Amino acid sequence: MDQSLALSVRDLKTHFVFRNSTARSVDGVSIDVPDNRTVAVVGESGSGKSVTSLSIMRLLAAPGRIVGGEILYRDRAGTVTDLAKASDAQMRRMRGSEIAMIFQEPMSSLNPLFTVGDQIAEMITLHERIDRAAAMHRVVELLETVEMPAAAKRVHDYPHQMSGGMRQRVMIAMALACRPRLLIADEPTTALDVTIQAQIIDLLKRLQSRYQMSILFITHNLGVVAEIADELVVMYAGQVVEKGPVASIFAQQRHPYTKGLLAATPNAALAATGDERRRLLAIPGSVPPVTAPRTGCVFAPRCGYVTPACRTTHPALVASGDGWTRCIRHEVLSHE
Ligand SMILES: Nc1ncnc2c1ncn2[C@@H]1O[C@H](COP(=O)(O)OP(=O)(O)OP(=O)(O)O)[C@@H](O)[C@H]1O
């Protein structure tokens, strides 16, 4: 594993095995997250983004199972662990002290019956041997770190007394309580309005440089990607179809699906190209079910660039420009 990486997911396969069918939700995904960098994973609903992040955290619900690949994680001491094979005890330690996760809806992770102060304090005392008074002092500090207004008063609030943006700040404070080296953020701003979304993104960027964290940021919003990410991974039907530096992909897409996603996101597309005439286009059709048999390229049925060969040959992920694409016609696209 390259010394500059915090996480290297290699050929990950996570399937849901039912009696009569198998959902190949994640089907050979490779993602590298460098130290102190943000990698965004985008794709339509059902493309396998959440199953990928839950696989890394080993929080999959049955019948979901990692059936292949490696999830290599380098801890602060430099030791590499394959999370795909780690024991439950090892994973509990990892989740506490190395890797943290925040979700779209903080309400589903917070307990409505306890104050936010108590919940953050519990997180701290799980990992540090300190008494309650010291823990509460740290809670206020953490809430100040996440720029919670009137932090010392807010520790006594119950989750329902807070706005969505404040609750997300509480979740980030809980994540920071264990000083993670890797933060997995699964659509953390999707439920928030645009102004609050921008504040949370800014906060995450400041925290990243202060705490030297790597961030794996799951989103379907390319505007957010433009704001926060260094590298982009585009997923489609359980596979990576394109990946590379954000600026390169925004300037030149090398997979028709990425082209369609950018065309459907006017702000990101405009920011990238400066072309104000770019029209809002939606990609016709929908992601095929992950239980469907696969021959050829999974995007072929929706692709404007399709050739007969695309329907019979499963394309490999190949180097193109300074990134990677899973399209046999990538050279045609890169000259457009
Ligand atoms: N518990 C489960 N049982 C069966 N199939 C599942 C389960 N969880 C996810 N899947 C399937 O795995 C595929 C990938 O789902 P996933 O939630 O990772 O997509 P996603 O890209 O995160 O979508 P969204 O943006 O809607 O969260 C979907 O087709 C979904 O139906």
Automatic annotation (TrEMBL):
It is a peripheral membrane protein. GO terms for molecular function: ATP binding; ATP hydrolysis activity. InterPro entries: AAA+_ATPase, ABC_Ni/Peptide_Import, ABC_transporter-like_ATP-bd, ABC_transporter-like_CS, Oligopep_ABC_C, P-loop_NTPase. It comes from the Bacteria. GO terms for cellular component: plasma membrane. It is found in: Cell inner membrane. Residues 7-262 form the ABC transporter domain. One of its GO terms (biological process) is transmembrane transport. Keywords: ATP-binding, Cell membrane, Membrane, Nucleotide-binding, Transport. The keyword Protease does not apply. Belongs to the ABC transporter superfamily. This is ABC transporter ATP-binding protein. It comes from Devosia ginsengisoli.
